Amino acid sequence: MPKSPDIIPSVKRRDFIKKGSILTIGFLFSRHSGWSGSLKPAGYPVHNIPVDKNLDALWVKSLYQRGKPTTYLKSRNELRYIGMPVGGLHAGTVYMGGDVRLWLWGIYNESEEPKNEGIDNKTVLWNDGNTVSKIRSRDGASYIEPAIAENKRVLEQGFAVRILYKGKLIIKELNENHWDEVSFQATYPTATVQYTDHNLPVSITLTGYSPFIPLDADNSLLPATVLRIAVKNLSGEKMDVSVMGWMENGASKLSAKKGDGKKVNSAISSDKFKGVFSSFQFSKDGLSTATDSGSTAFAILNPGAGVHTGFNSWPVTDTAFTSAYTQNSEIDAPEKLISALFTSKTLTAGATMREDFVISWHFNNPNDKLKELVKDARGGYYYGTKFKNAGEVTEYLATHFDQLSTQTELWQKTWNDSTLPHWFLERTFVNIGTLSTANTYRFASGRFWGWEGVGACAGTCTHVWQYAQSMGRIFPELERILRQKVDLGAGFRPDSGAIIFRAENESRPAIDGQAGTILRFYREHQMSANDEFLKTNWPGIKKAVQFMLAQDKNGDGMTDTPMENTLDAVWEGEIAWIVGLCIAAARAGQAMAEDMGDADFSQICKTYVQKGRANMEEQLFNGEYFIHKPDAVQGRKKLGSYNTCHIDQVYGQSWAHQVGLPRVLDKEKTLSALRSLWKYNFTTDVGPYIKSHQGGRPYAVAGEGGMVMNTNPHNEDKPYGENESWQLGYFHECMSGFEHQVAAHMMAEGMVDQALTMTRAIHDRHHAAKRNPYNEIECSDHYARAMASYGTFISACGFEYHGPKGFLAFDPKISPENFKAPFTSAEGWGTFKQLQLAGKQLAKVEIAYGKLRLKTFAVRPVKGSVIKTVLAKVNGKSQQVSFRKQDDKYFIDFHTELKITPLHSLELTLS
């Protein structure tokens, strides 16, 4: 029998962390109070989530503060779990650790279901407070016991510095054990590590990244890592400084056995770099098809540097920095063969030495499981069509380094140069790193393909990937490829219009995947420079919409055909979250039909939306929230959400906000639903809930906050149906992708405190003191649905965009009177600024990369502003405009289409 509220132990109040450590602040509350529901002697567990969250007002206020980039410290034991993906898109998983040393090295095509799931293939034990369960990788093993960098250093790699100062020689490796303090500043897609020795008058930093340029997928997929080291002389006298890096030959690292052949290191160079190409020379045929057969390379972008093709000097000695150049080295498998690169410089007082090191790899042999799952894998990877080996990757990166590094750093600066809180920018963006792990692939055919989580659940599953918002905004080309090659290609049934939710790896459509993918078609159309994408694909898109509309058997605008959904079950009846999602998809179908001039189909979609909305609001709203109406024949025999409070109940309206569609659900009813989710599903400590509600997986554990998937606030018996199935366990979990979706929706509807609190709960669950900040786990590691986090950023900006129409709009939800944030468009990215000053509202659009075509700009007046005139200038030159008010927004139409580039900016004065 569940404990009554008065005997559930109170949660200790958490103290504020000292100033400068805002990102480690936990939820501040005193005692659980305001329990909903009444106690029952038997039956389903009592709902025990407190209505009153008892959040500390100062803590909530702190969520809005700009703060500083998160910095993790050795002195606080915050480095061991850090693993920032620093390889290119779809190039495997290479982690940059808390002290910069690289680890994991998931580049050998091992990810495989169920053989090699996750980043650390292990089963762990989890005590949820009531029972002890065995947890696999796909069930959250890495959440309970995160992978530790020191245990996963597959390849030998590192750096050392040599300093000669006042006759004293100091040699130190860039290893946390060699320094008084090591700090890791998290500013994805780059991170900077600083090393401190209180007795050394030098500043040493190392910045790591892989080229990452939004809208440029090709230059962002290089299988390479850049490590930039900088040593600054802080003394008043000159000093001699040397820097050395080393890297193990990674070819055939896992499979080669004694007698199979030799590892070979060969010196390579150009006028841009000096380096070592690492390969494997086989002694017999038939071995070169192994998944780890390929090459690695190590280079320094300094043609005057020294080279060791065979290096073996630990601890690192003085002579290692000065010994003679070697041309070639080899060694029998499976012994280690290590290369090293070094350079020296005399630094005057205050001078800085900078060196760029590059590590590259090339393993173009997908495993047999992947080739079995998707035929495109048989041709190898997309990067394999561009480069024959790791040496060519190095040459390309070195040749184009100025462009690649400058544009990567420009994006990092643009993203972080904002008035939004640093912690918020980090959490909403960081999950795009999933694309730089072994969770995703791009094959030689150009096709994009992904697991749900690393090595688990194949086929770029539509009902998971449709939650992800970041790829469509940062690399829209990849989403367009998915739409054309898979959703209207390998996974399409042209006779019916059904989209098979795992393409070749399934035979059924999923109703939520179908609807969500229609909305993605509309987003991809919006993120295009012109209407060619829509024109080309409209016949297929129209069929997909028609198939979805046909799932409404009784013609009431509410989907009622039993069909697979993302909770891995087939639910009967009319289900609010599926009904609403289909209504939103039909509204997107209407918008696309209008853009295509297809008036008849536009009217069909419009009628469906009107009918569905009216019936959903009348029949599926219980006065508090939206529910699941049982099937008239089946009743509640099968699993469903029924009268419970389900996390996705107004997901359709959430999606509509993401793509700037008009409302598809009544605002007040929607707000009531969101408030119910906050009231009944969000808790600052999930411990009591998961202890009493058994069967879920550990994606949030005792002492952590989160939003539970599905709760039974009115304490019904058998709330989820008569014949409960294994999927019921999902209802008791906190899955970050769903939570991000709700946070994005709350933000869009003006529930900003709640949206920030939910996002911060996820952020705190992934603090480096507890687990890897870069890995949000659901069904396995780097779960794709977590890329829904970007949607909360979109909502915070009130961003709307339609490339073919040349339309851009902002409606900031956080500090609109003084707001600045980045944005991406079809052909460029930049920054939007807004300032309320002396009765005027000033707006500025700046482009940092590419270009922006603009015909119409829309903005909501900041509270108190009354707009009567609009002045527009581009690069100081006045532009003719007209403006109109519509739905509390002002739409500014430019008489001549603007083309804004990095040399120009748009300035608007609304007064």
TrEMBL record:
| InterPro entries in the record | 6-hairpin_glycosidase_sf (IPR008928), 6hp_glycosidase-like_sf (IPR012341), GH116_catalytic (IPR006775), GH116_N (IPR024462), Non-lysos_glucosylceramidase (IPR052566)
The protein's name: Uncharacterized protein
Q: Mind telling me which Pfam families this protein's record contains?
A: DUF608, Glyco_hydr_116N
Q: Which residues form the Glycosyl-hydrolase family 116 catalytic region domain?
A: 512-789
PANTHER family tied to this protein:
BILE ACID BETA-GLUCOSIDASE-RELATED, NON-LYSOSOMAL GLUCOSYLCERAMIDASE
Species of origin: Dyadobacter subterraneus
Q: Where is the Glycosyl-hydrolase family 116 N-terminal domain?
A: 83-403
